[in-house]
Amino acid sequence: MKLETALFKALEYEEMDLHYQPQFNMKTKELIGIEALIRWDHPSYGRLSPDLFISLAEETGLIIPIGEWVLRKACRQMQEWMASGMKPVTIAVNISPRHFSHASFIENIQVILAEEKIDPGQVELELTENLLMHNNDKNAEKMEVLRDMGLDLAIDDFGTGYSSLRYLKDFPVSLLKIDRSFIDSMNKDAKSAAITKSIITMAQNLELKVMAEGIETEEQMEALLEQDCFYGQGYLFSKPMPAEELFNTYGPVE
Ligand code: G
Ligand code: G
Ligand code: MN
Ligand code: NA
């Protein structure tokens, strides 16, 4: 069977699931957010990497139903966790450019937030630089609408796309996520260290939040804290995990 056909059936056959990776204030050790990451376990292909099937979903347009499913599932999960006593933290969802550009994206979000009864201020959309690059007035307008609705907008994988500093001025983003390739080499390579440092300083000067992703060592965390980059995510703290495991690890102690 073609992968595309399998992907078309994947939601209906309930082969998709979300894993969740916690995000921390590394200074206070507080949980501040949770990123939802899609997983697809095909009965015969096994687990397929989102890097592979998300691009196929983009090409075929299947990203629209898949993206909507991810948003709804993530919001519903957060609501369930809170009902079970977990403190409210941000739920971060990756949004692909084609989904974001879809005509009914805003309307869909409104419906999902209302139906899942989640505060828009608790939802963060992770967008990539490549989306912003298409200097498209519609995208800028949509971002303004989302911001006015109370959602937070983050730039994911910051530093790897078609970067332009102008969109930091033109688009209402509130968080930069430093790509993990820089974090991975920041303590081995002076250029990565300089880039990381520059992104942190720039974010601070622009009064944007900044988060490091892909933190795997204490040394990386220490170096980031020294530069007042307090938000972090990575295997040092936790891998992405199923909902139940996340709740058992980070849910209420009592
Ligand atoms: O979780 P993992 O490292 O396998 O993710 C690989 C890539 O797939 C990352 O770039 C991540 O942002 C992307 N990704 C994971 N989940 C989603 C999702 O729900 N929607 C979109 N658009 N991308 C996702
Ligand atoms: O593009 P995005 O930042 O959304 O991708 C997140 C991806 O990074 C997820 O697939 C997640 O599994 C992966 N990831 C999260 N933390 C780490 C880490 O510390 N090291 C590595 N190598 N990958 C990580
Ligand atoms: Mn992400
Ligand atoms: Na990233």
Automatic annotation (TrEMBL):
Native organism: Sinobaca qinghaiensis
Name of the protein described by the UniProt record: PAS domain S-box-containing protein/diguanylate cyclase (GGDEF)-like protein
Signal peptide limits: none
Ranges of residues in domain EAL: 1-254
Segments crossing the lipid bilayer: none
